[in-house]
Amino acid sequence: SAVISQKPSRDICQRGTSLTIQCQVDSQVTMMFWYRQQPGQSLTLIATANQGSEATYESGFVIDKFPISRPNLTFSTLTVSNMSPEDSSIYLCSVEDQGFGKKLFFGSGTQLSVL
Amino acid sequence: LAKTTQPISMDSYEGQEVNITCSHNNIATNDYITWYQQFPSQGPRFIIQGYKTKVTNEVASLFIPADRKSSTLSLPRVSLSDTAVYYCLVGDMSDQTGANNLFFGTGTRLTVIP
Questions:
Q1: Does residue B32 belong to the interface with chain A, where contact is any CB pair within 8 Å?
Q2: Model confidence at A36, in pLDDT bands (50, 70, 90)?
Q3: What is the pLDDT of residue A60?
Q4: E strand or H helix at A54
């Protein structure tokens, strides 16, 4: 199983600013996934990040708002840009098990509050 | 993409067996069924995965009938620490992009009562 570290674990930000969330995995993985979980809700996939190519965004999410970097096989960042209170959520990084089964492993998340 | 339906919430007393059923009527031939557990302030954690019949591990059992249109996660003798949200996902194991295994439904919020 993969061990995923996310930073920061939580932050309080002002409206209009941007926050970059870091995700570090203890092994090389092909794809990394970013999710958003709004208060009391399920997880919503934001985008899939492959190393060496642009991220693939799900419907309702755009690169200008959520730019993603994937510089190598163990690291990714998600930036939440020009934040508004509606962006207050938990942001989760995830990777897929490299063996059979396509199980997902998650970081502990970043709790973001926008004032 | 097989959609899943689960009860929104369930309550159970400590020590009881809990069964959470997930409906996935349009499950495809290559789809597997995977369950995750999420505690507050944590990311989801893999519990169990199966294709058909019964799968058991140290945490839970997964029962899948022959038509595979539903599955039941069984938690034996729950304790207060089993209070969490449980998600059922259905996805294509042959899909190399992994896309079908990435979409979470509403989940079932299990509350274990002393």
A1: yes
A2: very high
A3: 93
A4: none
**B contacts of A105 (beta carbons < 8 Å):** 46
**The tokens 């595979």 sit on which residue?**
B68
Count, in order, helices (H) and strands (E) of chain B: 0, 9
* Contact check, Cβ <8 Å, A103/B34: yes
3-state secondary structure of B82: helix
CB contact under 8 A, B46 and A48: no
The minimal CB distance from A106 to the residues B44, B91, B106 is found for B44
Kindly state the helix (H) or strand (E) to which residue B103 belongs, with its residue range: none
pLDDT at B101: 67
- Judge whether A67 and A61 are in contact, CB under 8 Å: no
Q: What angle do CA A25, B93, A66 make, to 5 degrees?
A: 45
Q: One digit per residue, pLDDT tens: chain B, 114 residues? A: 568 999 999 999 999 999 999 999 988 888 889 999 999 889 999 999 999 999 999 999 999 999 999 999 999 999 999 999 999 998 876 655 555 567 888 899 999 999
Rg (C-alpha) for chain A, rounded Å, is 13
Provide the terminal-to-terminal Cα distance of chain A, rounded to the nearest Å: 37
Taking the Cβ of residue B83 and every Cβ of chain A, the question of whether any pair is shorter than 8 Å is answered with no
Token pair belonging to A41:
């809700």
HSE-CB for A108 with a 13 A CA cutoff: 9
